[in-house]
Amino acid sequence: MARWCYRHRLVVLLLWLGALFGLGAASAGAGTNYANVFSLPDTDSATAYDLMEKAFPERAGDTDTVVWKVDEGSVRDESVRSRIEPALEEIGRMKGVGEVTDPYAAQGAAQISEDGRIAYAQVTFTEQANAVPKELIEDVVDKAQAAEADGLQVELGGQAIARTQEPPQGTAEAVGILAAAVVLFLAFGSLFAMLLPIVVAVAGVGTGMIATMLMSHVTDVPEVAPLLGSLIGLGVGIDYALFIVTRHRRGILRGMKPEEAAVTALNTSGRAVLFAGGTVCIALAGMLVMNMRFLDGVVVATSLTVVLSVLAAITLLPALLGLLGMRVLSRRQRRRLAATGPEPAEASGLAARWSSYVQRRPLPVAVMAVVVMAVLAIPVLSLRLGATDQGNHQESTTTRQAYDLLAEGFGPGFNGPLQVVVEGDAPTGLVDGIKSTEGVAQVAAVPPAGGVSVIQVVPTTSPQSEQTDRLIDRLRDDVIPQSGAEAHVGGVTAVFKDFASVTADRLPYFVATIIALGFLLLMVAFRSLVVPLTAALMNLIAAAASFGVLVAIFQWGWGTELIGVGKEGPITSFLPVIMLSLLFGLSMDYQVFLVSRMHEEWVHTKDNARAVRVGLAETSRVINSAALIMICVFSAFVLSGDMEGAMAGIGLAAAVALDAFILRTALVPAAMHMLGKANWWLPDWLEKRLPHLAVEPREEPPAEEPEPVVAGRTSVVHGFVRTADGAPVDGAAVTLLTKGGRQLDRVMSLADGSYIVSVPAPGTYLLATAAESYGSRAGQVVVTEGPLVYDVELAEGGVDAVN
């Protein structure tokens, strides 16, 4: 398929452009129909909601609030009424506004605070918040705030009003892409190579977002789903393309033609991308275990975007590689390739030195990594799930000002009233019992309608307070049962409390499911029990540490105002499920790319130390570059204007940073060095029953550069000559001798420290290595029918052990 896409690149490009513009046109005509369905089956708040919906079906539109406050006097003064009343009347006449409740009307006395300085009016639109035209909302805001004067403050709150404060759509995505472009340019040094992953990611995310908009008409898709879909889609889309482009460029630099390099890259890294994308989708599908309708739409949006991002990486990317040809390399690389010829495979520099350091000191590295992760995980012990509201907005926003004014004038619980719903008339004993309950500020029984009575309960504490949660428990466990009535506690605050409770109850099953699925996939891929066990443990450590960071920032308030996300509060109830799905999927990606290279080396050498060292040295740079890109993309979602988006962005950025730079770069290789050959142990009976799955087959050497053939040779000894810190030794003399001291072959090591000597027949030989300033080293080697891998480490200033 890669070869077909490479050769028919114009057809592939036209197909992708047609899909993008075709879906875009369909979406523009159909619009969106997002639905935030928070109902949870078999919960008290869900029963209350169903009863209220049956009794009051006319309350379909979004209700927002206009709040005003006077510095002196009363809101009843004529100077205030003469400014506010005309504004409210004009708002009521606007097309799309259903009703405006006026505190100056006969029934509006309760809408004025006891001290007379704060009042509010409720504006009910004819549509839900996401369907109200933004121009209408802006007109309402402008008309209300035009009534302001010296000593008279006017603010507005509500879901529809909050839409006027959202930054321009796509701001977060644009900033994330720009930051990723900088990282890619530094990594590749080529403008065209930099553009490839971005174009592929935009194509995948663009089609995914448009398809999600269309699917919102046939299934319940919450408003936050497209944001989360674009967040994960950009991250994996750029990363997957980065892995393939890196392998493609490496093939060209080794002397392969561009077409063969592209085919090889897709057959190696492309397979790993398919496997990694599948694991992300499986982790996301694990959310279905929670049995929450709200999360179903999130699974659809994010999984669809990941699938399309993978599809773009394995079809659109080879077509773009065909268009660019040699220009995927920088000019400097092309000139060097033409002048000096193909490069040998290099694993030198900082990555190789770090890999050697981890091999020599695995225990201190592991201990340091565990300590860092444990310290960061401490805040997770105080994790509290709940809901964010407009009280968490930035202080400068009108929604936050309105929220604070209502709390000041009518009590903190006014922003989150509870509804006690009763079938039939509300018993007097129930109303009296609620009034006398600790934590209740106001109680008002609404006249029955449709055979249902509603008792409005205003708590003394804010919706996000733990005391409000305890009040809901008292009403359900004590007050209602003692009254003998069959009643249910509902309202937004109760819904989110139930959501948090259900999440906490079902979270262990969800975590167990995705860990089990990941374990099985890695066990089949790497024929090991220890590797998937290590991966599962690392995922749990990364989750604990990233949630610790999330709690410290968003719940403890360490820097919330500084990064512009408003006031601290509880962690949104559904966020742990979504974050864990994404985190486990992304962690699996890095584990696959890291361990697949280690596994490849292990299969061919059966040397665990070499396998771990080579795997880390050759993959750490690309993994760290990919992680840096994801961190940029995720962090940019702080600019989304959405608290849940900001939480997910910061949480995932922290998780990726900790996972890539501490776990995969330090703790995983250190643990694998300490475990030794046990890493690759699998019982024989299980080995025979497991299916075989090739994640990333061994990359064959380019056909243009075959291995030299030596007459009479049956095998070779090859490897690297390095210093103690992992630096390659160039120009070292490597000599193969018989046991009697006769020289059989002699070569000089290359710039990357590699060497290869010919062996005439299987047997025992002496391999001597000498280099200026490093002394020499000699060792006995036993050669069988196949090639032997033998690395040599020279110490600077060492003695001449050969001569």
TrEMBL record:
The chain crosses the membrane at residues 174-193, 198-218, 224-246, 272-292, 298-326, 363-383, 507-526, 533-558, 570-588, 622-640, 646-667. It is found in: Cell membrane. Residues 39-365, 460-681 form the Membrane transport protein MMPL domain. Keywords: Cell membrane, Membrane, Signal, Transmembrane, Transmembrane helix. It is a multi-pass membrane protein. One of its GO terms (cellular component) is plasma membrane. The keyword Transmembrane helix applies. Residues 1-30 form the signal peptide. Pfam families: CarboxypepD_reg, MMPL. The keyword RNA-binding does not apply. InterPro entries: CarboxyPept-like_regulatory, MMPL_dom, Mycobact_MmpL. Belongs to the resistance-nodulation-cell division (RND) (TC 2.A.6) family. MmpL subfamily. This is MMPL family transporter. It comes from Streptomyces chartreusis.
